[in-house]
Design a protein that fits this description.
Blueprint: H1 11-26, H2 32-55, H3 64-89, H4 94-117, H5 127-158, H6 168-184
Helix pairs in contact: 1-2, 2-3, 2-4, 3-4, 4-5, 4-6, 5-6
Length: about 200
């Protein structure tokens, strides 16, 4: 994602990612792999910065119109961050790819949590209407939980055949992905050696 600087809340990281992309585009042959790794890491750094901005967002109770506008703004930040994680995962650097998918799972769950905590608008007052509003939020939450499970699966797939890799971040990302999958899609955990010993926490 090479969006205008004005669209980002992380200008320093945006500049570094932009420079890394441009260096990779200009490279050829044996020069490309290290530059691809640098691009992956720079884009990941911007994604992490954007993720912090997303995580700090809170929507206060208000009218439906006000809260809908605020939710659209949060969603734009979510989409910006999601696109960056997906880009970082695509450069072929194994560790960054695992991290990008694992953190994307965190992002999806963050949006689900935001929806779960969203107060009912003040102008939705009838009990049936309030119940319907909560039902709609729960339905939306389930879509983000599905996306989180898929991202965690992709992190684990990217982490296969790592040999003796001792990167602490990698171990944490894989462990976190296993824990998410144990809750969101417990039947799939058994297919990943990295998840051996992780208890399944889904419904019986």
């Amino acid at each position: 994602m090479n969006s205008p600087e004005a669209a980002t809340r992380c200008p320093a990281e945006w500049h570094e990612a932009k420079k890394a992309r441009e260096s990779l585009i200009a490279a050829a042959g044996a020069a490309r792999p290290p530059l691809a790794r640098r691009a992956a890491q720079a884009v990941m750094a911007q994604a992490e910065c954007e993720q912090k901005r997303f995580a700090s967002w809170r929507i206060e109770v208000g009218s439906q119109a006000i809260m809908a506008a605020e939710l659209r703004a949060v969603r734009r930040q979510y989409l910006t961050t999601s696109t960056l994680y997906e880009e970082a995962a695509g450069y072929g650097d194994r560790v960054t790819s695992v991290g990008a998918w694992a953190r994307l799972a965190d992002l999806h769950l963050g949006f689900a949590r935001l929806l779960d905590e969203l107060p009912v608008p003040v102008d939705v007052q009838a009990p049936a209407a309030r119940a319907d509003y909560r039902r709609q939020m729960r339905e939306l939450m389930s879509t983000f939980e599905i996306e989180a499970a898929l991202a965690a699966t992709r992190a684990l797939d990217a982490g296969r055949d790592g040999g003796g890799d001792r990167d602490r971040r990698l171990a944490a990302w894989l462990s976190g992905s296993c824990e998410k999958l144990a809750v969101l899609d417990p039947e799939s955990v058994a297919g990943y050696p990295a998840c051996a010993g992780v208890p399944r926490e889904g419904p019986e």
